[in-house]
Amino acid sequence: MFNAKTKKELKFKSVEEDLLILFSEMIKVSISKEVFISLEEKTNDTIDLILDLKTCELIVSNKNQNKFKNPNFVKILSAEVDEVIHRQNNKNSFVIDKLKLSNLINLQFSAIGKDEIINKIIIFLQSISNKEYGLRIKLGEVKVRDNFFCELSKNKILLEYFFNFFKKEVFEWSEKFANADSFQYQLIADFTNFILKDLLLTLSKEEVLGLISEVIKIKKKEPKQNFYYWYKLNNFIDNNLSEIVTEDWLLYQMEGLQFNWSSFLIDFIPENKSNEYLDSVNGFKNKLVKFLKKGIVFVSKENKLSTRSDVLYHKEKFSEFLNLLELLPENYKFFINLKDEFGLTPSFGKEEEESLKNLLLLKDFQQSNKIIFENLDDAISILEMKKKYFS
Predict the structure, then answer these.
(1) Distances (CA, A) of 244 to 102, 280, 294, 363
(2) Spatial contact of 332 and 300, defined as CB atoms under 8 Å apart
(3) Which residue among 28, 149, 293, 327 is the one 20 to 30 A from 142 at the CA level?
């Protein structure tokens, strides 16, 4: 939407400074649209020109202004009726001199209205990110939440500007920072995942994919990976960008990433029940297992297993766990966490019985497959003691 001259003038450092340029662009767009007229019968008085920042539309009004108190309504000009608007043949219809209107607005803005109007636009921009939850990042002087771009969807000028500002930030973060512990560094990547659908409002699919590629560079530097982040990203690509990527494009981009062992276990769904969400999750887990076998993704080196984990007493999950162990290299280590066995009322029931049986199987597996389970003997001893005294 921006022409070459406007693109060159925008700096994407200070929103306040860029709004001096953007305001003129919004006026051009709003005047090119239908101007909404909201006038009393009497028109020989002063009228107000109001810009609706949500829709980038102009409203001419001399009515009670209470209806225009929301932050998205900004009064940009007061003028005499005859200067810009004329009644036609004594009927309740009007003609607007759009050229004169545009000149008056720009003259008023240049002469005395800059600071006040820019401040009101900033207040509006902050107001649409006032919800109490969700991620928030800073673009210049404006802090925006993940609803921000959706709220601007009908104002193509502000939408394009802030998307370009956001793109600039993403590309700079992916190039500039190597510190994976930086909160801001991780935040901008997580924020992108929240607004992927909004990105399609103004960017081409190729541009969105390019942005995702930069975000992947950021996410891959994080020391711990979240399975569900990548699952959601894969869903978005499959549902929106599949025609411009090769099969399993994202999985190949994930080369070298490590995930917790549970990310590779298929969730059990009873045969007589359907679960669309778990089917989708399992589909991605199956892909992870496939790429684990290819040596593209890996199981994390630091893994814990609780004695009360359902993996130990659930038949199908334990079977999946054994299948995963077969794929792990020699001397791979699990730490069995015993803390859940203390501080609780001692009991030994069906689940504990199954867990004990499977811990004994793991002992045999450990000896034959050289997988190391720290605290395994202690875990077995504790459950055998519970069986003796509390079953």
Answers:
(1) 43, 21, 24, 49
(2) no
(3) 28
